[in-house]
Fold these 4 entries.
Entry 1:
Amino acid sequence: MPESTEAKKVYRRLQEEDFKLTRQRRIIVGTLLRCRDTHPSAEELHQLVREELPEVGLATVYRTLDLLERLDVIRGVNFGDGRTRYELTSELHQHHHVVCGRCGRIEEVDEDLLGDVEDRIAERTGFTILDHDLKLYGICLDCRQTIEDDDAGSEL
Amino acid sequence: MPESTEAKKVYRRLQEEDFKLTRQRRIIVGTLLRCRDTHPSAEELHQLVREELPEVGLATVYRTLDLLERLDVIRGVNFGDGRTRYELTSELHQHHHVVCGRCGRIEEVDEDLLGDVEDRIAERTGFTILDHDLKLYGICLDCRQTIEDDDAGSEL
DNA sequence: ATTACTGCAAAACTTTTGCAGCGGT
DNA sequence: ACCGCTGCAAAAGTTTTGCAGTAAT
């Protein structure tokens, strides 16, 4: 697996800030880039990383996630399932999350429609708004289909 | 402390659903109503409840929170500080949270401006949207004042 | 060579669970 | 009197930390 330009950008970022570029960090960054659409938790990421380098410890994954978060490469998001999940900040030009309450699938919606909402709230509260986080909860198309099929079955 | 009509409404709710109205549950409900604007965590709530009835166990608090959440009396919210905080659902006609990243203060904004955003996202993703959660992160007025004062001091 | 980084194990912290006894109904 | 609820303590799950050894610069 050749290393992407994106990975190299992160490596450079680490070195600029005088952090060492270890094998573990390279693999963790690579894995995060490869999982860009799955929002992995620390534990899930750890499993994937171990496929490539089995002796990596979970603590290293946590420490690296912490580091990458401080470098603003990734960002922790909480979907209320008891663990922090991570996404690349480069993805978030500005997007929202749509979570299916049945199967847990998370989709992203690239669109920022919240500019004027922010302005209005800033005015009303006196806060300086720096960021926002919008999650929408519902049922995805597949699950709705399944539910409807089940209903049809039980109605006979 | 006389029991509010609101508390009584919750008690009735519990009994309708065949749950027993224990002293612990009454006190927990009362405390939640009294803390409506603080978004307490289970542990914080437990401390407050113990002021009134010291032998209440933390597990009971968790179990009661769980029950009240299932009865849709309260709702867990995650502000990313590692513990679940709770708010009354009666408060959420539809509101958003504004969190100060410096002092942690949470303010609520009562206004729902997201109807058409929801519609657009439903159309685009195929999801049936049932609910949403908008958090805004920034710096509150007091903290900005403090920061500016500090800056002024260090500039001399 | 230096010293940041790692793996492991232990600790810390939030939340859940098992069980014997208590208390609403 | 029944059986749901409670307190306690133990367990479970996620994240953090201490430390001795390893590896990047």
Entry 2:
Amino acid sequence: MPKKKSYHHGDLKNALIKAGVEILAKDGVSGLSLRKVAGRAGVSHSAPYSHFADKQALIAAISTEGFRQLYERESTVADLYADQPSKQLIEAAWAYVQFAMDDPDRFKVMFSAVLEKEKEYPEFVSESQRNFQLVRRIIEANQAAGVLRSGPSDLIALSAWGIVHGFVMLWLEGQISHAVLEKSSLRELVEFQLRQIMLD
Amino acid sequence: MPKKKSYHHGDLKNALIKAGVEILAKDGVSGLSLRKVAGRAGVSHSAPYSHFADKQALIAAISTEGFRQLYERESTVADLYADQPSKQLIEAAWAYVQFAMDDPDRFKVMFSAVLEKEKEYPEFVSESQRNFQLVRRIIEANQAAGVLRSGPSDLIALSAWGIVHGFVMLWLEGQISHAVLEKSSLRELVEFQLRQIMLD
DNA sequence: ACCTGAACACCGTTCAAGT
DNA sequence: ACCTGAACACCGTTCAAGT
């Protein structure tokens, strides 16, 4: 049983992050205002400033939480197909695309929020690095299995990430032509993209 | 000699686009307000509504103009190296990355502005398709020269575009680790990315 | 320590009015 | 047709005050 309603909220910080994610899904990036987030969490418009320095800091927290969830999904897939490297690679890419599609505005925010100020949001940095290291491990398994070329695994990880990320971003922004989308399913397109860097 | 200053501006529409690009370069996406754009163009804050339906429409116009300039650069490079397909491919990718770096905020706006409403901005759609067709021609030249795998050129064009675009976006958003950036120059990284889809 | 409410400077958009 | 200025609803942020 949660505490009775009182002057102090109890866990307002996390409630604000949750409210932010919900508004993002409902109203999109342009509809995300600090005042609306506060309202949804049932507090005054200035209450968030007790927990976040500014709007940017709340967005950083939403992004960080997003990377945590992305890691959960990716690592589950990676474990599931640990003994089939090429399938592991393709399914991980597909999980990434699905994550983006589940909540496109949150996904965009995750990759457009923090910018220069890396140092100011250390949790964000460590979460996103954790994701990159996972990609790197998948790449190394694929290199060992002869599915991917040999070479520096961090750079190849960047290629794999980049080709999937670029595809998702172009798709989310409606930059992929109707003609292409009619011929193949999204799943087939993702697999096709990834096969471009896989050895035959 | 331009017309004397008068009640009517003369070419306010283009002046607003120009002012918008300048503010984007100076203050970034979050600093781009319609009122600031109007002020910079020397008109009242409601004057833009004589030429654009809303802020979104001005952003669409800025994006469209951006794609026009991108096409200029890309087609120049493509013509220059028309007889060396693999160099043509790499230099075109490099031109893309440089375009993004010249004005990162405009580049981001170009790929995050229009969304669903494709139909409402036909000029934007045709400009971005024109760019894609150019990539496709470069890809076909490389396929003919045996530099790229055979297969549907629109899908391979998507791979090439996606791998470069994904890399640029990740770089712009500070998602590429310090370790990677210290070992290689940006130019080398771009070339490395592209070589992943090139045949040996 | 955490939250409220008034205040300020800014924003997008509308609309009657001026040229 | 094109532009102005007042008006409205909204925003991020600050700060004195309350618990």
Entry 3:
Amino acid sequence: MPDARPNGTDLRRAILDQTRHLLVAEGYDHLSMRKIARAVGCSATSIYLHFESKDALIHALIDEGMMQLHAQLAAGRDACEPPSPVACLAAMARAYVRFGLENREYYQVMFQLHPERMARYPADNYRRARRNLELFAEVIADGVKEGVFNVENADVSAHVLWTALHGLVSLLLAERVDVKVADETFVDAAIRHALDGFRVGTPAS
Amino acid sequence: MPDARPNGTDLRRAILDQTRHLLVAEGYDHLSMRKIARAVGCSATSIYLHFESKDALIHALIDEGMMQLHAQLAAGRDACEPPSPVACLAAMARAYVRFGLENREYYQVMFQLHPERMARYPADNYRRARRNLELFAEVIADGVKEGVFNVENADVSAHVLWTALHGLVSLLLAERVDVKVADETFVDAAIRHALDGFRVGTPAS
Amino acid sequence: MPDARPNGTDLRRAILDQTRHLLVAEGYDHLSMRKIARAVGCSATSIYLHFESKDALIHALIDEGMMQLHAQLAAGRDACEPPSPVACLAAMARAYVRFGLENREYYQVMFQLHPERMARYPADNYRRARRNLELFAEVIADGVKEGVFNVENADVSAHVLWTALHGLVSLLLAERVDVKVADETFVDAAIRHALDGFRVGTPAS
Amino acid sequence: MPDARPNGTDLRRAILDQTRHLLVAEGYDHLSMRKIARAVGCSATSIYLHFESKDALIHALIDEGMMQLHAQLAAGRDACEPPSPVACLAAMARAYVRFGLENREYYQVMFQLHPERMARYPADNYRRARRNLELFAEVIADGVKEGVFNVENADVSAHVLWTALHGLVSLLLAERVDVKVADETFVDAAIRHALDGFRVGTPAS
DNA sequence: CATGAATGAGCATTCATTCAT
DNA sequence: GATGAATGAATGCTCATTCAT
């Protein structure tokens, strides 16, 4: 019976899903346990059977998103043939942006939440989240070894790349980019711009 | 009349100022009409005489912020001697990032508010906000004319630059950049990276 | 128009009264702002216009009770003719017990509240509350001066007397005294017992 | 089987014990079925297999407390050598006060619970609770027979004594006795004062 | 005998807003 | 132009209890 929520077996799953939907629909500020409960079709109390607190629920959601993102980044990297660092990094950048645009629900909780809420983010989850950046750093390091990237520190460069991609995704999600500009070519241009800085023959970053 | 709030003439001004102070001091989430009223020294009701709603007040504040940002961008541009587009653009990028980092909560309200709330953003205000991007575009266009920038469309490039700078500011504000990475040189590296893509001799963006 | 609550002029008064009633009817544990509001006929929010918090409301109630008790103790003392310390102290003891039995509402909040709640009791209120014990101590001191009381320290003796009277009142209010025993003569016997210890010719206390 | 909770045989016992511990440690207000269950190591539901409701559990606990108090009073009485009524009564009074002060939260549940909750106190339990007062009454009656106590009715006097001791304990527990007064000598003075009234040579009570 | 899942009612407090004055 | 009084809705969370298993 693959229905909406047939019998109580996966209330936890339903809560996570509805929370994600509500987050994108109304924003974090307007998210409340009661609203989630209403959307799921259970009592607010029941949520606490599956999540210790609102924060814990949010954290679980972030964690899910981080793992999905990791899978997609890795898939992007592995799909490029032949596997050159330049092509891989480009594929990963595209995968990152695609993930953000296609999962604005996840993306907002994952990367746009207040520090206050993230301060208590569990160490284990944090470690998993960091793996995404490490994925970028590894490919950049590979490129340095092969002499195709000209950067001093792969970790720093991974962060720099991330800020560029994140800015792109957030402004698109926030619908702040002028409609006259925000088309497919814009995304491509921004990604290319973000990647070009690493290439040999350009000033070091 | 150097009094706290001399005559009724400028309650509106006082409300905007105190709201900005509160915003910077306590953050958007903790901003309430009552707190503003207390800070201003008037009744909560009085605020409604000058602003239709909390949203309208926020919008007015955003507008002011956009104008402040504009002033600082212009100042950055005008301060560079001799006035080369390359130096000017760098000065503006640094001014943008500085504005964001120094006005944490203000920046969040200006650029990270939920789209729904911005949907009703008045057209006049929107036009003023766009002037900031135009400032970037103008300098880029100058650079193209002088042959120092290699871009196809100055408007698009201004947006691309913006996304990069915005990503940098947001992740720093959200304290998402690893402490091992987030120092002064990181900001410099990211800004340089964002600018290098436009330089002659690199692939067009 | 001496009706229940004719026009909003004295919501504060109504809140205090209803809170007192609810306290005796349902006990402190079951007192809630909502219930008070329902009893008064206003919204829960409105209570906060008159009292900063639930604690502040309780404290105000205690303060009222303390002042009323003071008035009745003083009245009891002043009413005895001729004004001998022995007769005055007896009159005050009877006044204390009468106050407790006739104002169980006040009494419970005044003297049976958890220390936690009293820890934050405002200093001014506390000073007023202490005046009641001082009233006892003064009369005892008078009696010592006149040589009719045999006690070492009037302050300590006032406290000792208080514990006895308080025990009497609380057990009667809690309906813990056997019905076969709890009649008028019992109260008289207990009061006499509490006073006799001070009389000259009995072992010092 | 010196295990934590060896076999299911005595879950009831474990519940009562843990409830008592929690009560002493955290107070009545913070006592919840869930906490008890956690402390015992069973599910909250299981408690209901052994106690009809929270009230029933509390009642059972009160009953145990009354029996403990009875044991300590009897022990105090039996420990005095030679067994004179005066010394015995004093020993019992001290035992009562000690029990109250050493079992703060227990005492509150036993003697300061709202009448409404006690209304449903089972008759059998009530009978057991009364045995404590009878213990006092017996010793007083003995003293009357021996001519060392001068009271009309031993039952009434036992109650009178109880009110005095209860007042002492309650005000000390509620931390209402002035710090300048509340030391060891104060307790002694109050107990002596409570007992002196019965002695031959003082007016009857 | 025991449990996990679930719930409705309740808590103190804060919010943006309205209305009569 | 300004206010004090008032409110309904909402917040995260805990509670004692029930029920199907």
Entry 4:
Amino acid sequence: MKKVTIYEVAKEAHVSLATVSRVINGSNVVKEDTKKRVEEAITKLGYRPNAIAQGLALSRTTTVGLILPSTSVSFFSRAINGLCDVAKIYEYNVFLHTITEGVTDIKEIIDEVIKSRVDGVIIYADKDLDDSVKLLEEYSIPMVVIGNKISSDNICSVYVDYERAVFELCDSYLEKGITDIAILQDYRNDLVSSFMRKGAEEAFRKHDLEYKGFVEVSRDNRSTYKFLKSYFKNHKHQVFVANRDSQALAALNAATGHGISIPEDMELVCMNESKYTSSVRPEISSFVVPSYDLGAISMRLMTKMLKDENVEEKEKCLDILYSPKDTTRQ
Amino acid sequence: MKKVTIYEVAKEAHVSLATVSRVINGSNVVKEDTKKRVEEAITKLGYRPNAIAQGLALSRTTTVGLILPSTSVSFFSRAINGLCDVAKIYEYNVFLHTITEGVTDIKEIIDEVIKSRVDGVIIYADKDLDDSVKLLEEYSIPMVVIGNKISSDNICSVYVDYERAVFELCDSYLEKGITDIAILQDYRNDLVSSFMRKGAEEAFRKHDLEYKGFVEVSRDNRSTYKFLKSYFKNHKHQVFVANRDSQALAALNAATGHGISIPEDMELVCMNESKYTSSVRPEISSFVVPSYDLGAISMRLMTKMLKDENVEEKEKCLDILYSPKDTTRQ
DNA sequence: ATCTAAAATGAAAATATTTTCAACGGAATT
DNA sequence: AATTCCGTTGAAAATATTTTCATTTTAGAT
């Protein structure tokens, strides 16, 4: 069990702590000769700076807190990948905090995040975001909000324009005279659902119609598949739109199980293409949401905020691409 | 911008730092009266202990490093959920480090993990695990290895018994006289693949046969689906086994695309059931890997190691459940 | 009222780093 | 030869906590 501190390095190199610190942090006031001596001492002793002590001395931890719902939703897991990749480039570490619906108290997570003195917080915009934001603002911790359009002094946001996507989708169908468009509403009743609702409503308004095609999975029905299986028994639609990839697959199988053939009898559209939706048969249409990029951009924004670089765009909107019956495979 | 330290609390409550510290840490030597005074001061000032300073003073950070390949593989994302849930219970924070194949230098991650002074490391057993283990052992950082069977003074491990699963699967087919069993080998050529190979080989040996049914996705073929589409053009099997859920779906669609009907012409088996494989049609058989539990158990093991509790079983083997054409949906 | 033991509290050291300010040495200038 | 200046270096303070050890307070016993 070795435990090398900056003292040992200083002794080994016959210099003071200050000089070692300067070498570690790449200060250019150190003479080339001594710098080399210190570096040799560092490698000889296998010294690794203590990030905790650095954090205390600097009041800066090069650490961000990431607060997300379940990581097993494709959208989030890919965002995490993007986020972590960028974090690595800029040498930030990521504390991952997951929210388990109905179990986790978000307040506790915020408490923990404050305690751990992260430099910034990246958080998914859930329903009760407001309280969290307030708490973090009190401590003036820079934030990046994912999934909704908010900004202020210390807050940037990155979101996906589901509203426009659904608007254009509906509009194009309505132009063709297709009006029976059902949208599956997540039983979690989250933000994405409400964006989709807005987009649909607007498109229908444009055509002097009122939208009322939302299909709600009931709260106590934990299985979307089971729900849809009984739903399609006595419902038919021209178009059926699902948000998550797993819901689209469930819809696909529930519908075909009742002899509804896709896409002849019913068009099936998924708002989040994934490796799962893209290899399924019959093929379904889907939107390609840049979730990896979303994570990457969020983290990049965060680094800009933390380094006081100029953030030209505090609310970054990501477009999503519609690929009807996409045949690109991965 | 407020910045309350233990000093302010002490002043407010007319006590010394030591007493405040004792109250924070639930020491029972503090008089009920003063304890109350301190607690009032804490809430009044909105004081939150500084975990960094605590970490420095205690040489303990209540933090673990988690090192994993891509989080967008169901197996890992569910493991993360389990791990984070348990971490929360025991009040540990999790640093997430993802490995991007061919991009990330694992050495750098280990360096970072050491620098950040985590109390322990939970790491997925990839090919070049040995170097990492050595480095972490030098610093006597407790480790939990996921996915392989290793243990030593400071190392525990949790793994899934793919070998036995494949053995029993093959054995049961061989008993029925079915010998044409193909196993899709991940192009990453990872540990799971090698466990599966061992299981198959053993089963065939038991029946005095030699196993040579591995199907290798070539390294330069990034898309399993594309590969399988051309593969099934001129190959047929009685049984086809895939490891990951996405690979099983790809196989399903590639095969049916060539008129091979599942399961009449070919049995399709997936080693990792997920919400995706379980709602797909035609139904496929699959193994239920307890990946959430695997994460949860890993973290629980870690807490035991860190609290010097007795770890009765240093190598924990998780069984996997075979559910032929499972109809449970979620 | 006095003594003793136990309970409660505080002062100060320790944790590993950064940073400011002062000091030193040598080179250039006067 | 003295002075000035710049490039290097080191001493010490600062960061926010815990913990040890000593001291003070309190309660109980005599």
